[in-house]
Amino acid sequence: MWSLCRNFIRPALSTGGLPSLRRSVVAPPVSRSYGTSFNVPPSAEFVSRVSGIPTMNKLPHQESAEGLDAAFIGVPIDTGTSNRPGARLNTPVLRSGSAELLLYHSRGVGHAAQLQQWNRAAPYDSLMVADIGDVNVNLYDLKDTHGPVGLVHVDAHADTSDVVLGERIGHGTPFRRCVEEGLLDCSRVVQIGLRGSGYSADSYAWSRFPCSAGGGVLVQVSGSPDGGGQGSDGGGPVYLSFDIDALDPGFAPGTGTPEIAGLTPIQGVEIIRGCRGLNLVGCDLVEVSPPYDTTGNTALTGANLLFEMLCVLPNVKYL
Ligand SMILES: [Mn+2]
């Protein structure tokens, strides 16, 4: 699991010191040429992509969220996996897979006006971002920080089972628990990409029942929505969760519970870009499993999706 969170109330890791790390680590001289006071990835014009400490997007590493607008956090855990384990190994490969990522979305060369419209994100002109390492569990408490949040959930699976392998905490149960614990504003929840076989003819029936938190419903959308338009839901806090198995295993085979006939990478990208304008308070990318990612393409794709998430956070400029 990977989390990209902003506006921390409390740091995921606290050292109580080392303030010099905040701006100085992996700050090559070339970064100053960008004319920004924000953390930036070093330019491949002068620094090899394979060199240096393999942090997320080659950003500086620091040991707390102090001074940051957003942070990348690795959460190496796959406890509760129902099929093929291995996602706990993904934090280093996603960091390595992000080495190709640069500063900007440059203007595209395609003819699609929508793509050109959204291809000039400048996250490093806008936000102070760093990689703050790995944690055993995500300590980012959405309920304490933001109250019930809306949810954009991109996944082949609804993850609303009551139990998995007899346990209430598993990788197929998180959003059922979220509803039970009042973490979601169920009037602002959408699930995209659901497919595959189930234990009944209507496996997702529970998700359509009125939810305890908001009296609304979980809405499911099979396949991909149209890529057009910016997101808008009235401005409430929204969390984005993207399971890599939403994509077709032909593109992203490195995952534990693959389902055929999934989204293409550009569809996944367009869904994330469509979240621009939402009040995103946190994002995650989950289920990249290196043992089944023989080419590294799944990690590369996952790293790019995390960059796309960074680009649609509130207050990111588009040039
Ligand atoms: Mn899934």
Automatic annotation (TrEMBL):
Keyword match Metal-binding: yes
A GO biological-process term: putrescine biosynthetic process from arginine, via agmatine
Keywords annotated in UniProt: Hydrolase, Metal-binding
One family name in Pfam for this protein: Arginase
Annotated GO MF terms: agmatinase activity; metal ion binding
Any coiled-coil regions, as ranges: none
Annotated Gene3D superfamilies: Ureohydrolase domain (3.40.800.10)
Keyword presence, Metal-binding: yes
InterPro entries cross-referenced by the UniProt entry: Ureohydrolase (IPR006035), Ureohydrolase_dom_sf (IPR023696), Ureohydrolase_Mn_BS (IPR020855)
Domain of life where this protein originates: Eukaryota
Recorded family membership: Belongs to the arginase family. Agmatinase subfamily.
Protein name: Agmatinase
The organism's taxonomic lineage, starting at the top: Eukaryota, Metazoa, Chordata, Craniata, Vertebrata
